[in-house]
Amino acid sequence: MAAAIADNDESTTFAEEDEELSEDDYKLKDNVYKLLDMLVDNVTLKKFGWPETKEEKVLCKVNKNCGHDLSKDPYNYQEWDYGTRICQVIVYRGYT
């Protein structure tokens, strides 16, 4: 089952929940956890379902909260690998 990203959990989908991650992907995932912890207050993180909700979904909700709705992007995120999706969400959406 695909993990939905937008608030309504249906408009944008990423990869399958059982996606295989490389060692580098796991390192990236760990760094995303740290980034979320540094940039977003605990109240907001909990509002977005953290830590039970996948980091990709939380990042997208943070983006949407800042005015960028990924469900309106022309990209098919589901076809991208984990690292590419995370870079798209973080790097190209203004976290850096």
UniProtKB/TrEMBL annotation:
Region feature (Disordered): 1-22
Record's compositionally biased regions (Acidic residues): 7-22
Protein's UniProt name: Protein suppressor of hairy wing-like isoform X1
